[in-house]
Design goal:
- Helices cover 68% and strands 2% of the residues.
- By secondary structure, it is mainly alpha-helical.
- The protein has one domain.
Length: 316
């Protein structure tokens, strides 16, 4: 392990609390937080189903803008609830402020903007690999749900929802779990445990395959390296959010086994073998994403860390 994995600002922030949650508490509480936060979204789902006449046909026939509004609200309410639960725990039990989850102000805008750009490039690279072999193609779909007609809803309604969703999963796993376990036990325990938990929290997603589970673990490892490399959560929150948004609402592909179906700028479909494209689970279940995640993780490990180089020069 490199120096920045062993000694890291995120660990120091976690130690600012009066106490650190033990590993079994992290697992149990993390699971409870996920379950409770999902309940926060039930009123949104009930209202949407009521407007659809409590039928699948009525739900499918809802106008794209309305369907997008409900999806955006569902993402915002349920995952916003997850952020709230994590914050309440560290405030009431660990006795530390929200900023210690990795949200210090210094460089926040630059880190967030860079994360958005890198997330788009990374997922675009996955689609590019599939295109290279001719294993992705445009799909015929409702014109009201594709292209410029859907652009307003995609950017103004769905993107904010994804920004909250991506941030929430990072707050739970890389903002809370990883630093707490690394500070209380060993850094590698925090990295591996948080990555494993991230994978299993998607274990009930439809169409999950063994390769999809491996990719989820790989993404967790990459996200841990990204957060530790920047010693902040801003960048990986942006990366995670735009990665999911690009899957579902930029390219029209399934997001971790779930088809958003509420509007996309480009509507693509996988035409190649499932082992490479991911099949019904979406690209995260295929080898194209495996290759992108391995390359991205390698870049995180071996790319020179200018900030630490400057600090070492100043102290030498």
């Amino acid at each position: 392990m490199t120096e920045w994995m062993i000694q890291n600002r995120l660990y120091d922030l976690a130690r600012q609390g009066r106490r650190l949650t033990p590993w079994w508490g992290v697992f149990v509480l993390g699971s409870i937080m996920l379950f409770v936060s999902a309940l926060f979204g039930l009123p949104v789902q009930v209202v949407q189903m009521a407007l659809a006449g409590f039928s699948e046909e009525g739900l499918a026939a809802q106008p794209p803008l309305l369907a997008g509004l409900f999806m955006g609200l569902l993402l915002a309410v349920s995952f916003g609830g997850l952020i709230l639960l994590v914050w309440l725990w560290i405030w009431l039990y660990e006795k530390r402020p929200f900023s210690t989850l990795g949200f210090e102000r210094g460089g926040a805008l630059m880190q967030y903007g860079r994360g958005l750009l890198l997330g788009l490039l990374a997922f675009g690279g996955s689609v590019g690999l599939m295109s290279l072999f001719g294993w992705v193609a445009p799909e015929a779909s409702d014109p009201e749900r594709v292209g410029l007609a859907a652009l307003g809803g995609i950017l103004l309604i769905l993107l904010p929802g994804w920004l909250i969703q991506g941030a929430a999963e990072e707050v739970l796993t890389r903002g809370w779990m990883l630093p707490v376990l690394a500070a209380r036990y060993r850094p590698w325990i925090g990295i591996v445990f948080s990555s494993f938990f991230f994978a299993i929290m998607h274990g009930l997603n439809p169409n999950l395959s063994l390769l999809a589970l491996v990719n989820l673990m790989l993404y967790g490892l990459f996200a841990a390296l990204y957060a530790l490399r920047e010693e902040s959560l801003w960048g990986i929150c942006a990366f995670h959010s735009v990665w999911n948004w690009a899957q579902g609402n930029l390219f029209g592909l399934a997001v971790s086994g779930q088809n958003t179906g509420v509007g996309t700028l480009f509507d693509l479909m996988e035409t190649g073998p499932d082992w490479f494209t991911g099949g019904a689970f979406g690209p995260e279940g295929g080898l194209a994403v495996t290759l992108v995640l391995l390359l991205s993780s390698a870049l995180m490990v071996f790319w020179p860390n200018r900030r630490r180089l400057l600090l070492s020069e100043q102290t030498s």
